[in-house]
Amino acid sequence: MNLLSIGGSDPSSGAGIQSDVKTFDYLNAYGLTVITAITGQNTSNFGMIQPVSKIILKNQLDFLFSDFIIHGIKIGMVYNSELIKIIYDKLKTLTIPIIVDPVIKSTTGGILIKKSAITDFKKYLLPIASVVTPNQFEAEFISGSKINSKKSLKRVAEIIQKMGPKNVAITGLELKKNYVTDFILTDRQEFFEKRKIKSINHGSGCNYSASMLFSMAQGKSIIESAKFAQKFTYDSIKNAQKVGKGVVITHKNQDPINLELSSAIEKFTEIKKISQLIPECQTNFVFSKKYPKSIKDILGISGRIVKNGVNVTKIGNLEYGGSKHVATATLIMNKKFPSIRSALNLKFQTDTIARLKKNDFIVKSYDRTKEPKSIKNKEGFSIEWGISKAIKDSTIPPDAIFHKGGFGKEAMIIIFGKSPNAVIEKISRVFTI
User: Are residues 287 and 345 in the same domain?
Assistant: First the structure.
């Protein structure tokens, strides 16, 4: 996935272009950049602004669009009317997600848009936005109205929405003691609360809009993307680092479980003709924390790995609790064999079972037709029953467990391993077809 950030350069890497690239990279998206202005700033003070020329801005945009398929765009700092109009002319006919993050001033005090450009910002950029993501100050600035209650908040959001953006997300509101609230206005309204982290930080607004763009480009709804962005931003504030002498800079620690699973998913999608082994219910791939207590301790895809012609594609984000069935199978397996922490489901084929056995893998099975009625009638209990039955007499963890289906249940194979890479190694040995 290619995501484009259009905005200013922050040499401290706390916000702006540099922050967005860090977010995209963390989420395993490829970050493209178009720089609108160079700023001088650090964690304590703001220095100078030098906007780029119209020629170089247009040149950056033209060269990127002539070479890359772009799946989503975030617009941050734009500074003056000349730059705003060039951006509008290039993006006005696009149908991909566009987030406008109305950057008015930096945490360190710099004013990031000229007063003379405010009218053109509202006229040209807000109407092309899929969603606009102001904080309270920015929302009040754009709307010309104060927020001092839920009623006035809704009024401000509606004023902004009437300027053109389809959706409005006003972030970081302090409507309740010790909590921060994000307010989302689409064709309905939603409030999302999180307990307040008491610190001044640099970069949270950029984290929010960039992570929201990632989720939207994955095909998620505005509401789903807003929830994802709030959690991502909350975690980045919680893990903020004091790297300079002034305010802390938001930071998202790389999760080694996420990194390994992401890498393995990419390897899986590149296996030749692997689409032939994707079941009708599609595929999930999971990786557990050590000693998981529930599926919330197991990282999985919130969507699925799906067929895309002869190729396969991951749809959705990696989230703890993102998988139900494959995660449950892993959880049950892990209780008996703690070394087994990863699994992936594949289409049932007798040839696949034969290949597994030929490669000396341990294969177990269970019969869905013998499942007790008391289990069938309980949502989510079938997998737990089946895996438990398959490994009941096992002293060594099986490499694969299969069943041949039942009424309304698709036949399935689940491949297990100590890690995602171990699962991929097994698949590569057996399923390169």
Answer: yes
